[in-house]
Amino acid sequence: MTETPEQRGFATPGSAYYPTLVAVFTGLVLISNIAATKGVAFGPLLTDGGFLVFPLTYVIGDVLSEVYGFRAARRAVVIGFCMQALAVLVLWATVHLPAAPDYANQDALAATVASITGLAVAGLAGFLVGQLVNAWVVVRIKARTKEKHLWARLLGSTVVGQLADTVVFCAIAAPIIGFGNMNSFVVYAALGWFYKTAVEAVVLPVTYRVIAYVKRHEPSYQPAE
């Protein structure tokens, strides 16, 4: 069978590793978007609760892009996007279901779901743009560098992808969280971009090892030449 450019240097997503990575990726997306409903302040530094795990979605995204290619990474992004949208729909349906006689948290639930919905829209928009840009950059750089300079693919994609994600997300989310003025928005966006990029740089050795492990154990992976 003739290999396509997408297949050369990538594995086919047919083993247990791909669905496992997609499951972890989707779980991190759902958790981070719920945690992001709380604005967090460390003195003058403004962020949201999603900072605890959201950068890890880009680590998993890098692994998917590097090992399986753009189409497989895009599939994971679409799955994460759809599951987040489904979560919002289920939460809204739950709010509008008849409450049990002794249920006392209807107003709190409605307020929480409204906040989650606004942030989900922000998260979905930023996530979709950022992750697709991240995957595209990884694959484009790999087309030039083959198996060399993995650090350049990982860091380069993070800088560009996180910038796109952060700007889109913060533009929608800042007023919802309570960072309504321009100064708060700039601090929020700049800190988010710097923090998420720094986290991925710090965990780069771990990302290297995960990518190397999956490449070694994926029967269909063929190194780029």
UniProtKB/TrEMBL annotation:
A cellular component term, taken from the record's GO annotations: plasma membrane
Similarity section: Belongs to the vitamin uptake transporter (VUT/ECF) (TC 2.A.88) family. Q precursor transporter subfamily.
Main location, first listed in the record: membrane
Spans traversing the lipid bilayer: 16-36, 42-64, 76-95, 115-139, 151-179, 185-208
Annotated compartments: Cell membrane
Tree of life domain: Bacteria
Organism placement in taxonomy: Bacteria, Bacillati, Actinomycetota, Actinomycetes, Mycobacteriales
Transmembrane helix listed as a keyword: yes
Protein function: Involved in the import of queuosine (Q) precursors, required for Q precursor salvage.
Entry protein name: Probable queuosine precursor transporter
Alphabetical keyword list: Cell membrane, Membrane, Transmembrane, Transmembrane helix, Transport
MF terms in GO: transmembrane transporter activity
HAMAP family: Q_prec_transport
UniProt membrane topology term: Multi-pass membrane protein
